[in-house]
Amino acid sequence: MENIALIESFSEFKDDKLIDRVTLMAILEDVFRNALKKKYGEDDNFDIIVNPDKGDLEIWRNRIVVADGEVEDSNREISLTQARKIEPDFEVGEDVSEEVKLVDLGRRAILALRQNLISKIHEHDNTNIYKQFKDLEGEIYTAEVHHIRHRAIILLDDEGNEIVLPKDRQIPSDFFRKGENVRGIIESVELKGNKPTIIMSRTAPGFLEKLFEQEIPEVFDGLITIKKVVRVPGEKAKVAVDSYDDRIDPVGACVGMKGSRIHSIVRELGNENIDVINFTNNEQLFITRALSPAKITSIKMDEEARTAEVMLKPEEVSKAIGRGGHNIRLAGQLTGYEIDVYREGVEEDVELKEFTDEIEDWVIAEFSKIGLDTAKAVLEQDVDDLVRRTDLEEETIKDVMSVLRSEFEE
Predict the structure, then answer these.
(1) % of residues, the chain, pLDDT over 90
(2) For 242-292, what is each residue's pLDDT tens digit?
(3) Which of 5, 103, 144, 306 yields a CA-CA distance of 20 to 30 A from 261?
(4) From start to end of 205-257, where are the E strands?
(5) What's 137's DSSP letter?
(6) HAMAP family per the record (predicted)?
C-alpha cells in the first residue's frame, strides 16, 4: 500500500465524519508515530509531514553520519558508506534525512496502522457525540424508531446517532412502530468505554415542562414561569405556573380557550390529565389550589413538620384523593406537604394502622396507596371499585370491611 492510498482511505472517514483539518492532521500524525515507535523503538528523530488537502504524507528519519563500523544505534546513526549511497558528498558528523516508505514498515504494521487509524477516528467521533448530547441534556429531542426490544426502544437520529428509550422511561400507553418519530428529553449521557450511551425519557417532569415551552409562546418568552411539575406519567400531572406580569392569567394562557393550547401536550403524553395551577407563596392557598378539583372546608397546617390536615365535605373526599390516589399524592409533591384528608361532620374514625392485629400490614399499605388511611374511608368505598383500584382480591376486601364494621358496632 502506497502512502497516497492510505491517505485516500483516511479521507473517506474525514468526509463522512466531517473532521476538521487540524484534528485530521493531529490524528494521522499520532497514528503514524505509534507505528514508528513499534518499528524503531522511538519516534522523536522522525519528521512527519501531512498534507490532507492534497492527500499525501511524508515520513523522514534523521540520523547522524558515523565512520564505518562505529554504528551503535542504527535508528539514530548511519555509516558513512550507507550515507554516501543517499548523497555521495556526505561526511562524518553530518545530519542525514531519509524518507521512510510505508512498505518499509512491513505489511503487518500497515494493517495495524489502518486499524489504529479507524479506532482513533471512532474515538474522536464518540467524544464529539458525547459533548454534543451532554449539552442537550434536559432538552427535547426527536429520533426515529430503529429497533424495538423488550426492555427498550432503540432510536436513530438524522445523523445516525443511537438513542435508547428504556421501558421505564416510556409512558404506559406508548406504542411505537419502526420508522415512527418519537419525542422525549435527553435525560442522561454517559461514556461506557469509548462509546456514549444516550438515554431519552418521556416520563420525566422535565419533558412536560419542555413541551409547555414549545407549545405555549408566553412560557417560551419567559412571560410565564413554570415553578414546578409533578407527574404520574400517562395518568395525571400538576403544573404550578406564575407570571410577573399582572395582565397575564398564567393558567388561562397555558390552557387556552376550551383547552385548545394544552390539547397537543395532553395528546403527546397519552391523554395525561394535566392540572395547571396558579403558584402562590401563601402555602395554605397553594395547598387548596393543589387539591383541585376538590373544594376544601378548612386546613390545619404544621409548617415545621410540613403536614396539613384538610377538612372536606364527604362528597369532596373522593375528588381530593383522586383515582388511584393520584390527586392527593401529586398535591403533596407539588406543595411539599404531607396532606391528610378528614371528612367534615365525622366525629369518630379509626386509622387503619390500629387494626394491625387483625389486618396484615401489606393489605393496609394497599389501601394507603390510594389515600384510604382510616376505617370509615374504606367503608365508604364500593367493593368493586376497590378491586379495580388496588391489588387486593374481592374476598380480602370484604374480610377487611367486616373487621372494620365490627369496630363501630361494638
Answers:
(1) 42
(2) 998 889 999 999 998 888 889 999 999 999 999 999 999 999 999 999 998
(3) 144
(4) 224-232, 236-243
(5) B
(6) NusA_B
What cell does 77 get?
546513526
Residue 105 phi, psi (nearest 5): -80, -20
Comparing C-alpha atoms, which of 262, 240, 263, 244 is closest to residue 253?
262
Contacts 24+ apart (CB under 8 A), 104-110: 105/35, 105/36, 105/39, 106/39, 109/35, 109/38, 109/39, 110/1, 110/6
> DSSP for 346-360?
-----BGGGGTTTS-
Question: Which tens digit of pLDDT belongs to each residue from 284-314?
Answer: 999 999 998 999 989 999 999 999 999 888 7
Alpha carbon distance 384, 382 (integer Å): 6
Separation of alpha carbons 137 and 334, rounded Å: 23
Mean pLDDT score of the chain: 85
What is the DSSP-derived secondary structure letter of residue 395? H
Residues 6+ apart with CB under 8 A from 366: 390, 391, 392
C-alpha cell at 308: 396539613
Cα–Cα distance for residue pair 37/145, rounded to 1 Å: 45
d(CA 43, CA 47): 9
Separation between Cα atoms, residue 144 and residue 272, nearest integer Å: 23
Contact criterion met (CB below 8 Å) for 236 and 275 = yes
